[in-house]
Amino acid sequence: MIDYFAKHSDMLMSAFLEHLQIVFITLIISIVLAAVISYLLLKSKKATNITVNIFSQIYSIPSLALFALLIPLLGLGNKTAIPVLVLYNQYLLIRNIMTGMQQVDRSLLEAGTGMGMNKWQLVTKVQVPLAMPSIIAGIRLAIISTTGIATIAATINAGGLGKILLSGLRTMNTYKIAWGTILSVIIALVADMVLKLLEKKTKATKLNEI
Amino acid sequence: MIAVELKNVNKQFKGQTTPALDNVSVQIEEGEFVTVLGSSGCGKTTLIKMLNRLYEADSGEIFLFGKNIKEQNPVELRRKIGYVIQQIGLFPHMTVKANIATIPKILKWDKKRIDKETDRMLRLVQLEPDEFRDRYPAQLSGGQQQRIGLARALICDPRIMLLDEPFGAIDAINREILQNELKAIHQKSGRTYLFVTHDIREALKLGTKVIIMNEGKILQYDTPENIINNPANEFVENLIRTAELKGGA
């Protein structure tokens, strides 16, 4: 097992880095997009419900089917993989951002508005900081989900650890399958741990008891 | 000088059959401590929320120090008005100091000035700066929290303070103490206060003038003495009698 890694470390590490890259780019685009959409949704609870509903429907489409659907439009490789992964993340992120924002006590918003904060200041200084635990929980879910679904993107030639897993399956190479699995689990676990820590920290500042 | 003037102000909320404010006109002199008294739903909260444009009037005009508030940017307008609410609304993720300095920070006061003024405000509301500055709201009692609420509203030295049942959720002993302190702060500042309450004894004790409201109308606007001695109508008379009964018991 270790021998296999030593022998093929170049291939494994480049797949690992490729995978990390896909997850990272997806995450950045997803967060920016979800933040913009959420900001626009702040005004209307109804629009929020409709939007979250639509994204939850999209989320329930099997990834292989969605990849296949978009290939004629966007072609093979990352050009299709990343948009699909971003689309899936919107459900997880927007749902968590909006839940967090809506849970902020209304009297805080009244106090803030009444003392002369404008809408942007209210969002950035009050709503977002208080919604942070919920937002980070959403990002955590998005990373885990992206890491998993990105392996399937190898079927449309997007590279990453999915490539190792697929070729392992084709050639019945257990080592390959095992290493592909271990490395993607490492991405998910490390990201999960880091964000859990962040989540705890944002909660701690809020309830800083004596 | 006239601090607050309402001219034939009307307000009706969607889905309600009776107006929240029914053709209200009133003039308030600068420096008064006006308590606005009435039962829930009488329009007293609506009245003060119109002054900082949290609500907009359907018709009529409102002037603060001679300027029509409709012609002012609502955010700018609110920064010149102190606002305190019953739920207090301290930001739980910010320290006491950060809470008090919310608007000064937005106005980009320099750090020295913010430090000095937040400490001065803490002393004004009888809290020791060194002890309370870095605490979070969750570490304070209800009474202490509302003191911070007051400090936060007072730091920009607003010419008008709007207080919406600020002591409504505070226990009787602390309420009494806070009432006395607020009265002293008002007297020293010479600013104009509008204080909403449904507690008649609080209204008569604090107010240099009292507005009595019912069903969206102002029934009487006068000094506490005149209201007790010459109630404008039966409603006011009954209201006074309930207070005296409670007081004598």
Task: Name the features.
heterodimer, A: 210 residues, mainly alpha, MetI-like fold, 9 helices, 85% helix, 0% strand, B: 249 residues, alpha/beta, Rossmann fold, 4-stranded antiparallel sheet, 11 helices, globular
What is the multimeric organization of the chains shown? heterodimer
Helix % of chain B is 40-55%
The number of domains of chain A is 1
Strand proportion of chain A, as a percent range, falls in under 5%
The main sheet of chain A comes to: none
Q: Give the spatial strand order of the biggest sheet of chain B.
A: 6-7-8-3-9-10
Explain what the structure shows.
Chain A is an all-alpha fold and 210 residues long. Chain A has a single domain (2-205), classed as MetI-like fold. Chain A is built from 9 helices and no strands. Chain A is elongated. In chain B, 40% of the residues are buried. Chain B folds into 2 domains: 32-60 and 71-80 and 162-249, Rossmann fold; 91-157, no CATH class. With 249 residues, chain B is α/β, with parallel strands linked by helices. The longest helix of chain B has 18 residues, at 172-189. In chain B, helix 5 packs across helix 7. In chain B, strand 9 (209-214) and strand 10 (217-222) form a beta hairpin. The model of chain B has no long low-confidence stretch (mean pLDDT 93). Helices cover 41% and strands 24% of the residues of chain B. At the A-B interface, helix 6 and helix 7 of A face helix 2, strand 6, helix 4 and helix 7 of B.
